[in-house]
Amino acid sequence: MNTQTANPLPAAPDTPRPDAVLALARGLVEHPWARFAMRRLGRLAVSVWVLVTAAFLMIHLIPGDPVRAALGMTAPRQVVDLRRAQLGLDDPLPAQYVRFLRDLFRADLGTSMISGLPVTQVIGDRLPATVTLAVFSFLLAVLVSVPVGLAMAVLTRGGRRHRTELAFTASSIVMAAVPEFLLAVGLVWAFGVQLGWFPVAGRGGPSSYVLPVVSLAAGPAAVLARIVRVETLSVLHTDYIRTARAKRLPPRTIYVRHALPNAVTATLTVGGLLLGGLVAGTVLVENVFAWPGLGSTIVQSILAKDYPVVQGVVLVYGTGVLLVNLVVDVALALLDPRSAIRES
Fold it and tell me: How far apart are CA 43 and CA 296, in angstroms?
């Protein structure tokens, strides 16, 4: 009797073993880059929470009734009570905090007490002017400081040209010490009022950017130039630079292709911090030049006691500074992976 052999069943696909999955997860967690990312994201989350909490408590720490201060002392009591009810200021503080977080996740920053417009709309209308001013100022500071610092390092290496070094150091210290708003006032008087070369207020054509950008970029450019010079001088004494000179490479190749990239790490660190300072420095400079950005908006809102707008602008400024610092940390880790490994 013929018997038919049953076809074997197809083999079940291999399923990952639990111990293999745990080993893979453990390897990912223990990887230096993963630990670096978790540390940085954890710090960012804590910093954002502190910023949000401080912005929420701002309106509650103000002495007196913020609604009464915004509407004026002559406002009827019924109007004040109605506005407090609309803002939810009569609810318990924990309930207000939960509602504030919920609205924040929905990108709802409230409504302006003065104009009645959504705070997100007010910020959206003014944010591009501030970002443009800060970015142009940072680019100008970098484009000026890097070649100046590199040139001064080459000219003064080995104790040469001592007077040139003293003049550079003194001038850079003075430029870095002058406040942005004071320099802005001087530039307005000299090049706007006396010479009439540039407009002194408003945001118009390209010429309207010159004085605000120079006011913001002068101090950071002086600081960065000194750092580039110091870092370049230390790099010029390394063995690989001596080897490049022994190979009789052109000076331009030695300084630009070999020395400068290795002197960029510290410059990038300080440059990122200065970019955060530039964003904050726009507050005063914008008011000097009547620049329609967030800086002038927050000053006007403080004077008008428009606290929802103040809260929103503070959140935008703080978040911008935190994100800039995060980008700088990541850029430094990519340029120098050893720093991320050492930290992790």
Answer: 30
Question: How buried is 57 (Cβ within 10 angstroms: 0-12 exposed, 13-18 middle, 19+ buried)?
Answer: middle
**Residue 65 neighbours by CB under 8 Å, 6+ apart:** 80, 84
pLDDT at residue 1 above 50?
no
Q: Is the pTM of this model over 0.90?
A: no
d(CA 8, CA 6): 6
> Which pLDDT score is estimated for 29?
52
pLDDT in tens, 318-333: 888 888 778 777 777 7
Query: Are 59 and 66 a contacting pair, CB within 8 Å?
Result: yes
Q: How far apart (Å, rounded) are the C-alpha atoms in residues 117 and 334?
A: 43
**Per-residue pLDDT, 70:** 67
d(CA 129, CA 126): 6
- Distance, in Å, from the CA atom of 217 to the CA atom of 180, rounded to the nearest integer, reads 9
DSSP string, 225-240: HHHHHHHHHHHHTSHH
